[in-house]
Amino acid sequence: MPHDPQRVLIVDDEAPIAHALQLRLKAAGFEVRAAHCGRDGLDAVDDFEPEAVLLDIRMPDIDGYEVCRHIRRDHEAPPPNVVFLSANSTDAARIQAREAGGDAFLSKPYNPKDVIETLHRLISKQGTARSTETRLN
Amino acid sequence: MAQSTRSVSGGGQSGLRRSTFRDRFRLCGVGVIGILLSIGLHQKLSSHETGVAQRAFHEISESRAAVLQDEIESHLAAMYMLRDFYDASHSVEREEFRAFVSGLIQQFPSLTGVAQSVRVEHRDRAGHETALRQKGLPDYEIREKTDDRRLVRAGDRPVYHPFIFSHTDDQELYRRFVGFDPQSDPVRHDAMRQAEATGSIALTAPLELIYKAQRRWGIVAVLPLHKLSETPDGPPRGFLFGGFRLDSVLANAMDHHRSVFLSMSLADITEPGRPVSIWPDPEATPVAADLPWVSQTEVQWGGRRVRIEHRPMPGFLASYQSIRPIAGLAAGLLVTAALLGYLGTMQLRAAKVERLVDQRTAELSAANAELDGKNRRLAVLTETAHRFVDNVAHEFRTPLTVIKEFNAIVDEELGGPVTPEQHEYLGYVNAAADELSQMVDDFLDSSKLKANTLRIDRRPHHPQALLDQTRTVLSLRAKTRSIELIEDIEPGLPEVFCDLDKAARVLINLTINAIKFSDVGQPVTLRVARDEHDDIRVSVIDHGPGLSSEELELVSQRFQQVGDPARTSSKGFGLGLNIAKELVWLNLGHMDIQSTPGSGSTFSFTLPRWEPGRIVAAYLDALAMAEPNDLAQTPDTSRLLLLEARSPESHAIPGDQLMARLSGITRATDLLMVTPDGGVLLLGTAPGDGSWADRLREEHRQRLRLQDTDAWRLELTPSEEHDLAADPQTLIQTVRRRMSADASGVHPSNGTEEYHHAA
Lengths: 137, 759
Hints:
The structure holds two protein chains of two kinds. By secondary structure, chain A is an alpha/beta fold. Chain A is 51% helix and 18% strand.
């Protein structure tokens, strides 16, 4: 278990960005999958059961907030971490992302180091939470 | 501007509506008061008349009782007349008796009949009976009444009192009574005993008498007869009996004192606790239910106690009611109507004027509506423009991300090996992408500045924090042009008061600008030091080509004023410099530029030191720097400046009045400040209890989401207050003079250390 690579799902309609993130995250040791719209993203959450989701906001079918709300509603355990990654970094967007249930918010253009650090931080926190849960059970 | 116009016109209209409503309300009020007063007058007069009626009722009742008494006594007098008749002769014959009684009955129509009895000892009974049989009464015998009202021969007893004469209109009936011994009737016997004891008339209890074949309530008066020679002390030789019809007696009395509105009742109350109603049954008589008045008179008639009771009948009161209460009511209503008419007329006139005003207001409203419409369209346009800017920024950032990201991926050799030359080229791409990214940020900030949505959060910071925050970004930038960034910070600097993010943006913009204009390899110095006012000056010194005097003039001019980004894009300075100038202004500082052609430029900006007096002065400087029109758009809406006056003249200008005056030169909220401990600095004078200030503070705190960060208490001297009262326009000058003249006159409300603590 501890040696399994951590799974990260990228949901971004901008294929080059998704591709670049895939490259980055694979290089950083994550198991990565990419979805190019909100619906595909939700399906992938079901199949892939990622530890974290990197989520764009503006997408053609359903926006990132909606995707996040679905994830929060349908995936109680284990809940994936949701990191918003958007070019719209206004206060309003940040507030909306938090209200939708996002764990973190990063703005584009992103600093690759920030993305990887954020993912590590959230997943390790979740890991701690899970091990606590296991212990309790 | 548009808003104030709108509110004025709106207020005017509702004001008119209110006033019309008020007028109607007032008219109604006058009407209601008038009617109430009229009703009150009516009530007053009515109750007065009721009082009069009540008094009259008792007077009438008493006088009627007196009349009744007289009437009864006059009837009893008939009995005395009969006795006098007997006293006048030794022996009265039957025919004499009949003639006298006939006359008497004519005189007293209520007298139903009269009889005379004689005393007969038992031993004389037979002789007595024989004698009378011989005197033309062949059936004569002494008789008595049985319980079933039959007359039979009287049983033996020591003394008999048979009727020997009896007379009435109904001769046949009374003939039958001759020989009847009234002793056998307990009611009559009682009266006889009493009459004998008193020697005067005694009345029986009420009893039914037969009169003209009808039973009527009546009484029988009994009077003892003595022989002329005998003393009254001995037993009477006989009795006189007179039957009186009560209804007749009373009707007669009523005739003398007629009242159709009084109900009368009589009761024999001789027997304690057993009153016998004599006239008429009180329950059968209608009585005015709403008048609980009773008049009772007790009289003594022939040894019997009789209660005469009067009650008012329905209609009694009405007979005492005059037209006065109604007249009072009518007069009151008339006066009210007249008053209403007058007021109504006045209001009609007022309404005419109001219509005129309405018309003008409507015209104004129309104009305002047009203006409003324009403003709304403008607001929509502005909003659209801002959204457009946001969208454009977003659209820019997505490809920028792709460029930067793949540039980095290639540079990091994630996609394969890269030659040193290629690394260098990738560096240029990255720098250009960063610059573009910065421009997009500026673009967005500019948009926010114009939309007044840029939040500012000033706090005390150490100047070093500014360099720390910007170091990473700037060193990366400098590296692409092999420029060395030299940090030169003066030791022992005081804290500055600023929004650190905004200050950092300014430093970044100025430095990027300097890097851009420097030759490759030339150093750029970032100097942080005290300026001549002991504020902190942050300077960016380059060794580039410098500015020509024309360019310098152009840029300097633009630094004098804020809020004009339309004229900004002069050669090479980009949007960044313009944003910088706005942000410096928000941080209560000012920008400065010095340049020598050929040897470089120094762009610098100040940040006020964390010291209350200095902040207030800087704040006022910033206000003074803004153009009048910009005051209304001061982005710094989250700060209030309040000055507090504690002098005896404190009440010279009520606080709200002062605020109203000040709002003429600037928005009031720009002149108030909230202390960290929630205290306030009052500008001008607050009313004694300071509730005005509290109210204002609360209002602004909620509306502006105040953070309690900067706060000072400034006490004005009386003369300064006076200046303020004389001309609020001198406000800023007054306060500034005070600032510079006596910096120690400005004190933190609760000490500097606590400020540090609060920050």
